Amino acid sequence: MKNARLVKLALSLSGVTAIAIGGAILLVPAAFYATYGIELGSDANLGSDIRASGGALLTTGLLMLAGLVVPRFTFASIVIAAAVFLSYGLSRLAGVAMDGWPDSGLIWAGAFELAIAAVSLLALSRYRTTA
User: Fold this and answer.
1) pLDDT tens digit string along 8-67?
2) Burial code of 44-64, b = ≥16 C-beta within 10 A, e = fewer?
3) Any transmembrane segments, and where (predicted)?
4) Residues 111-122: pLDDT tens digits?
5) Spans of all domains in the chain
């Protein structure tokens, strides 16, 4: 049952992380981004766009956690977790290549995202071999 524990770890870690970050971006975007030295200002268009991405991330986190309680969602939930966190981490690397080095907090965020992606991909590979 090692594989089941790895799947649960991957889905728990990815789901809780996505919900926490997505919820913060949706509900308190200025405070969230200020921790990285980003000032959002009062542009309603920017606020709307940022809150929308926060809501999407929160929703994907819920889908990740759904795989813990609904067995038929498990495979899709792991795929979502791997795809979301891999895309965030790789996009941050692309940003470094195109724009230069951001705040150290964003570097750590990217490393954490890639770590969650790695755990999710490992869980996915183990899940596929036992399913």
Assistant:
1) 999 999 999 999 999 999 999 999 999 999 999 999 999 999 999 999 999 999 999 999
2) eeeeeebeeebeebbebbebb
3) 9-32, 52-70, 75-94, 106-124
4) 999 999 999 999
5) 2-130
